[in-house]
Amino acid sequence: MNNHFAIPEFVQELSTASSHGVNQIVQKLSTLLSHPVLVVDPLYQVLSCSTGIEAIDEIVIMPDNQQESNPHFAVFSCQISTIDSLKNGLANPITLNNKILGYLILFSNDKPLAAGLYEDALIYTASLCALQMQKSLELKQERQKFKEAFLFDLLYGNIKQKEDITEYGEIWGWDFSIPHIVIVFSYKEDNHFFTNKQTVNMLLQVVENELISQNFKPIAMAKQSQVITMIPLVDTDYDENRAKLEAFAVTVLNKAAKMNPEFELACGIGKKYRNPTELFRSYQEAKVAFELGILLKITTPLFTDFGLERILYKHDLQDLIEYYNHTLGSLLEHDKNHDGNLIETLEVLAANQFDMGKTAKASFLHRNTLRYRVKRIEEILNMKLDDLHVRLDIMAAFKIKQLRKI
Amino acid sequence: MFKRTGFIFNADDCINCKACEISCKNENQTPMNIQWRTVKKVAPELYLSLSCNHCDSPECFRVCPERAFIKRKDGIVQIDENLCTGCQLCVSACPYQAPQFNPETRKVSKCQMCYPRQDIGMVPACVEACTTGALNLVDLNTFEDEQTVRNLPGFSDVTVTNPSIIFYPLKPRKRYFLQ
């Protein structure tokens, strides 16, 4: 056999290992070169490490920028810092079709590595990694297509059998035998064409990362300006669940606001459903809660928290206007004719559950002034404010106003 | 991402000819008292041709106890009349009066955006029949035009339901009188 066509043994071994994925390639290269090997993504987040995932939690990789930007050096040196040590390494970009998929890094526990010695091996292994990473990326994209179709059907109740949903869910490791709740995050769009897909995808990433950090298999999808997620709720304690959901929503809102401060974000939380075929209701409720939360200025609105608002938001507008004018019309008329602000006093009084003390404090009025005003309001409206029915009417009228129906 | 089919209505171009109404009736053979699409006059020179708006958050769909409604991936909201018990919750929940109750069959029916036509690449009958081109179909996920608005006077509140319809508003008209 002609020696020129001989393939080195380590190439054969790496090629064989490559069929089992990036992890195996990393392990094999590490064994062959007797040094630890890492694969990181373009943002230097560790994807695979020959010394095991546990050992690499705190690694920060600092590339030498001058060398990295120089196209003549495929391999560049970098420093890998852990909590207790700083190590020197050699990195080679993993590229496919001029797109950087990540970096392959070889590092030493003691002395710096000679680039010339390892360059060829790193370049060859990086090309094997590139093929494997591209393959898994394509697989992920294909799976994502099916995932989105399944989630769409789930959120619109198009799958009628509970067993079907449970079986489909198992494909992605989701257990729909336990109750779930739907949370909708969305940008408050003034413009109805919200085409900033990058922003929505970033929000999706924030939601997924937060779910992973809480040990959930993320069930999330992006839809127009919304990111919809489903969270399993094992606990039966309502208050505990509520606190968890609110904390989760606030964390996501804060993180997303830090990333994109120019877009205002809001959320809505639906009801918990045991049967996955009913989850579409939770989605619709979350969207209603989202809209009502914006109108009523609630950061983490839960659909279960809304009472009268649930009926009022969809009631006939003309009816609502008539009701509002019937209840508070005479007071509005009086304020208009006398340039007064009794309606504002009544609004603060209603907001403080008709408690004189609290209202006086909130509206910076003396108790006696407030008493006089309440007496005037009672005279104008021709009703007694200590009657519960009257209070209900007034509260409902102000809720109609809050919901921007007037 | 799936497409989101929706209507785009140019209020300036509608002349109240009712061709959309007639073609809808003809295509779907709806009974005499059922009209899935209607043209209504909301102001002296403003006509709106309205049907089901295939909302992103359909209220009919949310309230139906029989789960008779389906939202297809292209955004079309369909009703399975076999599942409908005629409770009419959807009729009262829809702010656009799209679902219509037929007292003879005791079932609710509504516009289904001519999905059999759309599935073979045709546009809905109402869009095809529109004499002035005021009514059209677009993919709301990709369509962009800053001149469009979400609401017009005479159209119900769009918050919560998020209907799949956008409008070109009326432009101020110039009048020329013979002296």
How would you describe this structure to a colleague?
The complex is a heterodimer of chains A (406) and B (179). Chain A is an alpha+beta fold and 406 residues long. A 6-stranded antiparallel β-sheet of chain A has the order 2-1-6-5-4-3. Chain A has a 4-stranded antiparallel β-sheet with strand order 8-9-7-10. Chain A contains 14 helices and 10 strands. The mean pLDDT of chain A is 85. In chain A, helix 1 (9-18) runs antiparallel to helix 2 (22-33), helix 10 (317-338) crosses helix 14 and helix 11 (342-351) crosses helix 13 (367-381). By secondary structure, chain B is of the alpha+beta class. Chain B has a single domain, classed as 2-Layer Sandwich (Alpha-Beta Plaits). Chain B is 17% helix and 21% strand. Chain B is built from 5 helices and 9 strands. Chain B has helices at 19-28, 59-63, 89-93, 115-119, 125-129; strands spanning 5-10, 38-43, 46-50, 69-71, 77-79, 100-102, 107-109, 135-139, 165-168. In chain B, a hairpin with a 4-residue loop joins strand 6 (100-102) and strand 7 (107-109). The A-B interface holds A 148-149, 152, 156-158, 160, 191-193, 195, 223-224, 277, 280-281, 284-285, 287-288, 291, 295, 313-314, 317 and B 1-2, 4, 56-59, 61-62, 67, 69-73, 93, 95, 141-146, 148, 150, 156-157, 159-160, 162, 166.
Q: What is the overall silhouette of chain A?
A: elongated
Radius of gyration of chain B: 17 Å
So what's the oligomer here? heterodimer
Into how many domains do the coordinates of chain A divide? 3
Total DSSP E strands of chain B:
9
Strand content of chain B: 15-25%
* Morphology of chain B: globular
Fourth CATH level, the homologous superfamily of the largest domain in chain A: Reverse transcriptase/Diguanylate cyclase domain
Mean pLDDT of chain B: 90
Q: How far do the termini of chain B sit from each other? A: 58 Å
Largest interface: A-B, 25 and 31 residues
Protein name (chain A): Purine catabolism regulatory protein
Family (chain A): Belongs to the CdaR family.
Domain PucR C-terminal helix-turn-helix (chain A): 342-400
Domain CdaR GGDEF-like (chain A): 161-291
